[in-house]
Amino acid sequence: MIPAEPHDRVAIVAGASGGIGIVTVRALVAAGFRIVAAAPQDALLDALRAELAAQGERACVVPTDITQPEEVERLAARALVAYGRIDALINLAGIGSTPSLADDTDARMERVVAVNLLGAARLMRAVLPAMRAQRRGAIVNIGSVAGEVGVMGIYSGTKFGLRGLTDTVRREVRSLGIGVTLIEPGFVRTPMNAGDNLPDPKIVADAIVAAIDRPRRRVIVPGWYRGVVFIANRFPGLIDLVFGNASIQNKLNADARKGHIHG
Questions:
Q1: Which domains, and CATH codes, for the chain?
Q2: Catalytic: which of 33, 83, 155, 187?
Q3: DSSP state of 195
Q4: Span 242-263, pLDDT tens digits
Q5: Which residues contact 119 (CB under 8 A, 6 or more apart)?
Q6: Is 155 a known active-site residue?
Q7: What percent of the chain has a predicted confidence (pLDDT) above 70?
Q8: Which among 114, 35, 45 has a CA at the least distance from the CA of 79?
Q9: Rounded CA separation 96/107 (Å)
Q10: For residues 50 and 102, which has the higher predicted lDDT (pLDDT)?
Q11: Contacts 24+ apart (CB under 8 A), 127-130
């Protein structure tokens, strides 16, 4: 198949109305992509729809609950009907949990798994037939440093799972011209994360756009978190000592209850 011109490429962005999602949509628009923006129907999605109206037929908004398989399949079908191809899938949808597993309800744990892990799996499954037929495409999954350093309860569990899922899908489609990248952000400034000194979410959006053109196994942003991940992987006992400290655990849980941290 003839490769798509840069201005013809189509990107599905799941979780498009979130703090990182909106910035990513803007970055993809600036890079010339046609956009299929997906998120649950709410006021944030309405605001994104109004912003994308200026793009005319180059963008469409599809209300989607990624915990529902039929809605995920409908999203992929809508992209193909509208634009005839799917060049990129950005898996940004995600929700957090408390650091303490004991603080989570069963319903909340199921919801975190359904969105963060099963939702990502369903989205990949939905776009792969089109990408296989094209023999090209890019999938960018948004994990977390909490998927390398287990300190955020069931949220960390799902991000560890997403890391493994990304590896297996990357190997499954490697010979088909489909790139699969895992981007693992640390804390960045969003409505869910307090702190004016946190990095701008544009650092994640820029990494996503770069990964579409040049897929990589794993990208950690901001870069200084690479040191944290290295220590966690090489010296897990040290992480046990630090985060096993009762005062640190108490602070993590207190901040989470106040809404000051989100994995």
A1: 6-257 (3.40.50.720)
A2: 155
A3: -
A4: 888 887 777 776 656 554 344 3
A5: 14, 66, 67, 72, 91, 93
A6: yes
A7: 90
A8: 35
A9: 13
A10: 50
A11: 127/12, 127/76, 127/79, 127/86, 127/89, 128/173, 128/178, 130/76, 130/80, 130/85, 130/86
